[in-house]
Design brief:
Elements lengths: L1 H6 L43 H29 L34 E3 L13 H6 L5 E2 L3 E5 L11 E8 L5 E5 L20 H4 E6 L9 H5 L3 E10 H9 L9 H4 L2 E7 L21 H7 L8 E6 L23 E5 L4 H9 L24 H8 L3 E5 L3 E6 L9 E12 L7 E2 L14 E2 L13 H5 L2 E4 L2 E4 L6 E2 L1 E11 H4 L18 E2 L10 E9 L36 H21 L23 E8 L6 H13 L8 E8 L4 H15 L8 H16 L4 H4 L8 H8 L1 H10 L7 H17 L15 E5 L8 E7 L20 E5 L8 H6 L1 E3 L13 E4 L6 H16 L24 E7 L2 E3 L3 H5 L14 E5 L19 H12 L11 E5 L4 H4 L1 E5 L11 E5 L10 H11 L3 E4 L5 E3 L6 H21 L7 H5 L1 H23 L6 H4 L5 H27 L10 H33 L10 H15 L5 H15 L8 H34 L7 H13 L1 H21 L8 H32 L4 H29 L7 H6 L2 H6 L1 H12 L2 H24 L2 H6 ...
Parallel strand pairs: 22-23, 22-29, 23-25, 31-35
Antiparallel strand pairs: 1-3, 2-18, 3-17, 4-5, 4-19, 5-20, 6-12, 6-16, 7-8, 7-13, 9-12, 10-11, 10-15, 13-14, 19-21, 24-25, 26-27, 26-28, 29-32, 30-36, 31-32, 33-34
Helix pairs in contact: 2-13, 2-29, 2-32, 2-35, 13-29, 14-16, 15-20, 16-19, 18-20, 24-35, 26-33, 27-37, 27-38, 29-33, 31-32, 34-38, 34-39, 35-43, 36-39, 36-43, 38-39, 39-42, 39-43
Amino acid sequence: MRAMMLKKPLAGEGDGTDSEGSQDGDSIDSGEDTSNMKGPDITWIPVCCNAACCCHVCYIVLFLCYVVIFPLWCKWLLTAPMPFLYWEQNYPDFPRMPLDRSNIARAHNDGPQIVMSPVPVDGTTCNYTCGEILHGYQSGEMNFDLNVRLNKPDLRNEVHTTFPVILTSEDFEEWMLVADRRQAVTDSYSSRNFFGEVEDKTARTYRSTQDSCSAEASAGFLTGSEIYLIACVAWRDSSASALMDLVDDMDGGDLGTYCDALGGVCGYPCASHMPASFPNCSAGGIIHQGALEALIPDKPAIGNVSIEACVNPAGEAASCYTSVGPFADWDCHQCIVRPVEEESRRLQDIGLPPGVGVPPGIAGLGDGLEGAGDEEEEEEKSAGIRKYKSLPRFIVKYEDAQVPTTAGILGAPRAVLFAAKSLAGPWKKLYPSAQEDSLDMPPVVFGETAPLEVVKESEDDKRTMQLDLLNELNLKPDSCFGKRGPLYVVACAVNASIYDDESQWKKNKEQRFNLGQKVMPPPFNDRCVAVAGRCGHACESPRANNAPLKYCNADGYIDQQYLVNKIHIQYNRATPVFLFAYVLLFGFAVKTIMLCPGIFSPYKRCTFYSSELTEQIRYILVVGVTGGGDEGKGTMIRNTIGMVSGLPPECRCRYTVCNNEEGHRLEMITCWEKFCAVLAAIPTDSGQYENNLRNFTHIWCDETCNMSLKQVGSTVKQLDPNILARLSGRTTLDKVKKVLGWDKRGTKFDRLVDAVEDLSTDLNTNYNKFTPMTPHLDYVRDWIPPDSSSLLRMHFTSRAKPIEDPRNIMVQHVAVGTWYYKCPPEPDPMRWLELRKNCQEMIYSHADDGDPGYTKVPLRSSHGKAGGLNFVDNYISLVNDRMENRYGTLSDGPDCKNDQDRAPSLYAIADARHQFQPDFFISCVPCFFDPKGLLNRRVAFTQAPQHYPEHSDKYDYLDNNNAQFFRLNAMIRDCCGGVSSCGTNGMWQMADRDNAETLWTHRLKRVRDRDGKRRTQVIEREQFHTSCKIEDTASSLDRVLVGEYSHFVNRKLSFGMSKDPEGFLGAQQRWVEGAITLCLQWVTNHADAHGQAKRNQPLLWMVIVGFIAYVFSLCRLVTVEYTSSILVELGILDRDFFESMIRTPLHVPIHWIYNVLMEIRGGHSPNSYSYRVYEDMTLQFIVFMGTCVFVFFLLWVLTNVCKVCKRCCLFPWEMKWWGRLVISFDNLTYWVWFWTSFFWIGFNIYLAVSPAQFHFNNVGMMSFMVAATFLNYALIVTNSMRFSIMESVDANEIAFLSMDNIWRANQLFFMVGPIQGFSVFTGTRNFLYYLMYGQDIGGWAGGDLTQVSIMIVKYWTSMIIVASCVCWIYLFASHPTADEYQSRRPGCIIFSFIAMDVLHPCVYLWTLGNNLSNEEATKMHFSAKICSTRWWKKFWSDTLLNECITNIFRYVAPVYNFMLPILVFYNSYFGVSAGFTLVAVGAGH
C-alpha cells in the first residue's frame, strides 16, 4: 500500500508539471482526488446484512450463553450427586445395593430383624487371644462368639440368599468389620454359612439322610417299574415305635394311624427319563399334596415333607449333594450284601469290639485275627456276596415344622420311607429293620470298602430327624472387636447377588472383605437387607457406675432408627472441589469483564482523512522519546524519519515533530541537526516542498522500517555499511533518482546529497560514544523548513538532568538533595525556560535563601518518561503561543487568536524504538471526528498496536508482540471506547490551555514540613501522570472517569525494534508494579488526579463494589442451597410477592420439564436418586440469573435517566461508559489474580500424586466442557472475524488472532505468575515510599528489572518441567490401584502439557548468550563439550528451539485444548484438571 502511495501521490502533490509534460515539478501522476466521491445509496440495506454485523450478533448470543453456561457448570460441580459407584470412596469395598432397594431394611418388623446373642459382660466369657493374631502379642482387645438369627419375613420375595457380616464400634462413629461368612461355625450335619431362611416361622427344618441301599428283598419291586415313594413323619412315641418294628407291608389306610405328615415322589426310577403319567403324580415326579392328605385324614397340616436324592450314593450324612432333576432322572446304583465273618460274630458274642486282640486262654481263636487268612480264605469268604440294584440314597426334609400339642410327643420326629405301586398300597418299607442276629452284614454300595465288623445302630437312631434352623448361624470371629468397655455390635445381612458382583469390588482384588477394615457409619440399609445391633459394656462385670450407652435400648439392642434411615445423596462437596469451583468463578468473572465490552457497537467516527479536518486542530505534535542504552543516534534517526513521514497531505495545522532526549547527550543534538539539514535540502520548487518531503521520507521509511537493535542498538560499535547507507538516506537518494527523477535538478539535488553525506559521516563517527551536556540546564532547538508555507516544525528538547546525591531520596517535591528554581508571584510563561536556568540544589544544613513572594519549583518533579512528555507539552504549547505561530490576526482581537488557536491539539507518542509509518496520521486523525467531520471533544486518544516484524508469532517465545492483547482484548475494548493507552503509538487530544494561568499549578505535598503541616507546592503543569510507572494507564483512567473514550486503530501503523525477548519480562514486572501502585493510590484516595476525574472517583468504587458483589453472588450460588433471591433477603423485594409471583409459578414448568426428560430417558434407573436436587438447582439458577438481569435492568434505567440531565450529573449516562469503567477496574486489579497460576499448577500436582476424592458423571462433565470450550473459542473467533472484516473493508489489512498467539498467551499465563507475585511486594513497597516520603516512583531501570525477571522465570519454569517428570515417576512407583491410576493420570497429563507450554521459554532463557559457532563446536573434543557451558547452551538451543520442534509444539498445544472435552467422556477427571484453561486462555494479561 505504501509503495502505491509513492508512485501515485495524492491530488495536489507534485512539483509543477504542466499539461505539456514539462518536468518543473515532482509529481508523476496528476491523479484525481476521489476522497469526496460517493457511491450508490445503500442506506436502505438493513444494518445486520453484512458480515461484520452478523459476527457481532453471534458474539452477543455466544456471550449470553457463556455467562449462563459457565456458572451453571460450577453449580453443577457442587450440586450434582456423585456417581453411585463412588459413594464409599473413602472406605474399603463394601457391596452396596441399588438405591431403589435401600428401603428393604427400613420396613417395619416385629422385633429385631436379626436376633443376636447379647454382648457378654462377664470377662471370663471373652476371648483375649485375638490380639496375639493381630499384633503378635496379647493385648486388652477381645472378641466373643456370636449367635445370629435372621427374622425378617418380608425378605422372602426380595432376596434368595444372604450372608452375615458383623460390625463393631466403640463410639458409634468409627466402625470396622470383624466377621463375615468365613467365621460361620459349621456343625456335623450342615456346612451352611448363609441364612437359608428369613424368619423363625419357616426356618424350623428337620432333615434325615437315609441308608445308602434300599432293601434287597424289594429291589426288583422298587427299580423295575413305576412306583410311589413316600416319607412318613411321626411325632408320637407310639407311632414311631410301631414303624420301627414294622416288618410286613402296610395298607394305605394304616398311614393315617402312624404318620403325622407325608411327602413323596413318583415315577419311573433309575434314570428312566420317562414322564410320569399315572394318577396323582405331577410332571416333575411329585405326589400331589391333596392325595397325600387324603391318606392321613383328620390330621392337621404341620409342615411340608419332601424327598430328595443324593447324587453321591455313599459318604457321611452331612455330605449329601441333592439332585435338582425330577424323580425319573435320579440314578440308581449297585449294592452288595455279604455274610458276617465267623470271627466277628464270636467277638460280638463275647462282647469284644472288632479289631481287638483275643485274650489269652480263649480256645479256638488265633492271634491277630484281623490280619489272619490268606488268599484262598478270602476267595471262600467272597463266595457269599450278593449283588443287586438299589434306589439312590435319599434325604428327607421336613420344612415349616410345627410340633403337635398332643401328649406323647418325641423331641424330634422320625422319618420312615415306604414304596408302593399305587397310593392305595400295599406300602413296603424301603429299608429293612436292623436285626442283631442277622447272618448278613448291612448292604453297602458296590465298590465301597465294606467294614469287617457289624456296626450296631438302632433303627430309631437311624430314623430320627435332626433339627436345622435355616435362619440361624453361629460365628466364631478371629478378629478383635475392640477394647473392653462400651461396645456396639451390628449384624448385617448382605445380599449374596450383590456380594458376588465383581463390579462391587474395586479395591479388594480377592472380592472379599478384609477383617478389621473400616466401614462407613450408619445408616446401613444401603448395604444390608436386614440389620440389627447389640450394645453394652463388653467383658466388664456389671458396675453401678456404668453409664447407659447413648444409642442403646433397655433390652440391649441398638435403637433401629440409628441403624437405618434415608440414604442421603453424596456430593462432590470436598474442599478441592470448592477451591476448584471458586477459582473457576474468579477466572470467569475476570474473563466476563474482558469479554463484556464486545457486546457494544464501536463509536461511529469519520472514516476518511480530509485536509478540512485539520482546520479544527491547533497543531499535531508527535514526540520521539530517547533515553539511553539502545536509544542512540541510529535509533533516533530511524524514529524521526517515521515521525516526519507521517506529515498528513495538505495539512492545515502545524505539524510538529519533537525529539525529546532524556539522556542529555550532546552528540544527539548534533545528529538531530544533521537530520534537519537533510530536510532543509529537500527541493522546494514551486511550493511543492511538503510533497517532495513526503515522497522522500516515504522511501526513506521503507528503507529503515525493518531494522533491528542488533543493527543500530547499543551493542553496535560501528554501523554496517549497508545499514549506514539505508539509515543515512543514501539508498533513498538512489531510489528517488530513479522513481522521481531528482538527479536532474542539478545543484538543488547536490545540496541534498551533501546533507545526506554529512549525516552519514556523523552516524559513522564515534557511534554510541556520547558526551554529557551540562546536567542542570535545559537544551532546546527549533527548526523551521525553508519553505515558509510549510507547517512542519522540528524541535529538539532535552530537559535538565542534574546530578543528585544517591544518599537522598528521589522525591517529587523540593527537599534536601533536589534541584529547584524560583518562580515569582505572577510569572510570565514566556520566561519559563529562563527561570529554569537559574536553578540550584537544596543543600542540607544551609539556610534557606528564599526571596519574599517567590516559590520554589522542583526542576525535575518526575524522573520518568512522563516527566519528559510533560516538559515537551509545556514547551510546544509555549512555542505555539508565540505571535508568529498564531493563526489569527489583529482582526481576531488583541491576542491575535482565532478559533483554531483555541482548538484542541493532538499529541502523538513514538518511543525511540518505534517508527511511525507514513499512513499513521491519516489513519488516526479521522478518529477524533464524528461522521459529519466535526471534532469530537469526547475522544481522548487513539491507540495503534505495537508490531515487531523481526519476531514472527512462531518464534516469539516470550510473547514479545503481546499479540493477544492487541488482536483480541484491544478490539473487544474498542467496542465501548475503552482501549487503554499503551504509551507509544498513542495519540492524545489535548484541550486548549491558558499558559498564563496553568503552566504552574499546585499540588499537595506527600510529606509534612518540619512544623507538622502538609502544604501545597507549586509544580509545572502535568498532562501525563508522574506518580507511577504506567503513566499511560493512569492518564487513560483520568479520561475514562470524565466520560471520554478512545479508538483502537487495528493496523500495523508502527514498526518497532524489539529489545531482546527477555526484556519483555522486565516490562511485565514494570507493568504489574505500576498497576499495584496505581490501584493502591486510587483505593486510598491518594491518586494524582485533578478536577472532574478526582471528583468522579466514587464511580470507580461503584465498579469495585459491583464486581465484588458479583463474585460473592457467584460463590454464594455454588455454595449455598437456596431458592430465594438476595433481593428478598435484603428486604428490597417482598417475600410473599416473590413466593406467589415468581418462585411458585417457576417450579411448575421446571417440574414438568424434568418429568418429560425422565420419560424420554426411560424412567428411573435402579440407582436413580431424587431428581428434586436438579429441580432445586435449576430453580436456584433461574432466580440467580433473574436477579442479575433485574439489577442490570435497574442500572440501565438509571443510566438512561441520567442521560437527560448529563450536563449536571456526574453519574454515567451511557452503558458504554460503564464498560470503560469496568475495563479500567480490570487494568488496576488484574495483578490480584497472580496466584491463580500457582494454584492451577499446585492443583494439578495434587491431582497427580493424590487419589481423587471427587468423581463426576462423564457425560455431564463432557457436556459442560464441550459447551464451555466451544463458547470460549467461538467468542474469540467471532470477535476476531468481526474486526478483521471491518479492517479489511476499511484499510484492506487483516490482523487476525492465530492459534500461535493463544498458545503464547497461555505460556505467558504460567510464566509470569512468579513475576507478578514478586511485583506485588515491590509495587506495594513503592506505594508506601510514595505515600510516606513523597518518592518519585515514576522511573525505572529496565536492565535491573529484566535480570530479576529472567532469574525468576528461569527457575520457575525449570521447576515446572522437573515436577512434571517427578509426578510421572511417583505415579508408577506408588503402584496405584486401577481407580487411583484413573484419577491421577489426568493430573499428570495436564501437568505435562503445562510443562510443554513453558519448555520453549525455559530453554530460551537458559541458553541466552549462546555464541558458540558450529565450527567451534565441531573442533571441540567430547570431554570438552561435556564440561563446556557454551556447548550445552548450543546443544539444547539446537535441539529444542529448532523449527521442527517448534512446529510440533505449536500444533500439539492447541490440539490438546480441543481434545480435552472428548477425553472427559472417557475420564471425567480431565475436566477438573484442565477446566481452568477455559478461563486462563484469552485473559490477556
